[in-house]
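Run log // design_07
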C-alpha cells in the first residue's frame, strides 16, 4: 500500500505543529504551513517532487522572512494599557499622614497606601499632593 505524497506532507505538517506546541518556536508553525502548501501542490495540482520541495521552501522562507521581523517588533513594544502597579506609577496622590524617608500614608487611586519619600531629605505634610514614582511591594515611593 503506497501513501500519496500529499499525505506525507500533511503528516509532516502535523509533526511540525506538534513540535510547535511543545517548543513554542513559531518558525516551526511557518514550516508547517509550507508543508501544507506542498501537500496542496501535490494533491490538487499534481506537482512532482521537485515542485513540492520548491513550494515548501519558498512558502516557508517567505513566511519566516516576513512574519519573524513583524513578530520581533511586536514583542519589543511595551503594552499600550498599563495595569496593576504599572498603572499607578506617575499618578498623583494626597498625603494622609506625614511622609518622609521612614514612611507615611497617602491616598492613591481611592485607596490608602503606605508611602515613603524618594529623597531622604524631603518631608511631605498632610494634604500635600505628591507624585508616585515607583511601587515597592505595598509601599509607594513618592516625590
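design_07 sequence
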Amino acid at each position: 500500500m503506497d501513501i500519496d505524497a500529499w499525505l506525507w506532507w500533511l503528516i509532516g505538517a502535523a509533526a511540525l505543529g506538534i513540535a510547535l506546541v511543545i517548543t513554542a518556536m513559531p518558525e516551526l508553525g511557518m514550516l508547517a504551513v509550507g508543508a501544507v502548501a506542498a501537500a496542496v501542490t501535490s494533491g490538487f495540482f499534481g506537482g512532482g517532487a521537485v515542485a513540492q520541495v520548491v513550494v515548501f521552501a519558498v512558502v516557508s522562507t517567505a513566511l519566516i522572512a516576513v512574519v519573524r521581523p513583524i513578530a520581533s517588533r511586536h514583542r519589543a513594544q511595551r503594552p499600550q494599557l498599563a495595569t496593576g502597579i504599572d498603572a499607578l506609577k506617575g499618578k498623583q496622590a494626597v498625603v494622609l499622614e506625614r511622609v518622609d524617608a521612614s514612611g507615611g500614608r497617602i491616598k492613591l487611586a481611592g485607596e490608602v497606601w503606605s508611602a515613603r519619600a524618594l529623597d531622604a531629605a524631603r518631608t511631605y505634610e498632610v494634604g500635600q499632593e505628591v507624585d508616585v514614582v515607583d511601587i515597592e511591594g505595598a509601599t509607594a515611593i513618592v516625590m
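The mean pLDDT is 92.
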